[in-house]
């Protein structure tokens, strides 16, 4: 009686790429360049930066860096961002800001900030490292604002 072997299915690159998720890695997060408040302030004055505020809607409404774009996603869209089937522009709040981000993200430094530096291992649903990973994959220049932002800017 012949031995029975399970049938093997050969996956092509299309099958594999559809199953890969965009997951931030510790290495990519720690490679994120941190910049000072002075760097960001000079970038605002020189119109050379886009600022993405990754804090909650309430925190953003209570005060934010002038010109900052708020990014936020409900859980379903956050999962799609993780899987790589969603663009960062989708997370930018407001149609005019989405258009500005889309047209300028490849020509400016993108500054990300939130209340405090996140621990990438603590919460895989944290938006900042996911946004960072996606932007790096899109060859954008991404930096992290270190320290607390000055709301009066």
Describe the model.
The chain has about 150 residues and is an alpha/beta fold. The chain is about 35% helix and about 15% strand. A five-stranded parallel sheet has the order 1-5-4-2-3. Strand 2, helix 4 and strand 3 form a beta-alpha-beta unit. It starts with 12 loop residues before the first helix and ends in an 8-residue tail after the last strand. The N terminus is likely disordered.
General form: globular
Quickly give the structural class: alpha/beta
- Helical content (DSSP H or I, runs of 4+): 25-40%
CA-based gyration radius: 19 Å
Can you count the helices? 7
Q: What is the topology, as strand order, of the major beta sheet?
A: 1-5-4-2-3
The total strand number stands at: 5
- One letter per element, helices H and strands E, the order comes to HHEHEHEHHEHE
Tell me about the biggest sheet?
Answer: 5 strands, parallel
Give the SSE map.
Layout (H helix, E strand, L loop, with lengths): L12 H7 L6 H5 L2 E3 L1 H9 L3 E5 L3 H6 L6 E2 L4 H9 L11 H10 L4 E5 L13 H11 L3 E5 L8
Parallel strand pairs: 1-5, 2-3, 2-4, 4-5
């Amino acid at each position: 009686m012949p031995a029975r072997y399970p049938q093997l299915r050969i996956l092509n690159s299309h099958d594999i790429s559809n199953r890969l998720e965009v997951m931030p890695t510790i290495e990519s997060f720690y490679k994120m360049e941190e910049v000072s408040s002075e760097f960001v302030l000079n970038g605002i004055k020189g119109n050379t930066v886009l600022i993405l505020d990754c804090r909650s809607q309430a925190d953003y409404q209570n005060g934010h860096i002038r010109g900052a774009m708020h990014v936020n996603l409900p859980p379903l869209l956050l999962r799609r961002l993780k899987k790589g089937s969603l663009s960062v522009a989708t997370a930018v709040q407001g149609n005019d800001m989405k258009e500005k981000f889309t047209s300028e993200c490849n020509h400016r430094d993108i500054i990300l900030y939130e209340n405090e530096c996140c621990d990438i291992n603590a919460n895989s649903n944290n938006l900042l490292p996911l946004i960072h990973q996606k932007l790096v994959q899109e060859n954008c220049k991404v930096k992290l604002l270190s320290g607390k932002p000055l709301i009066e800017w």
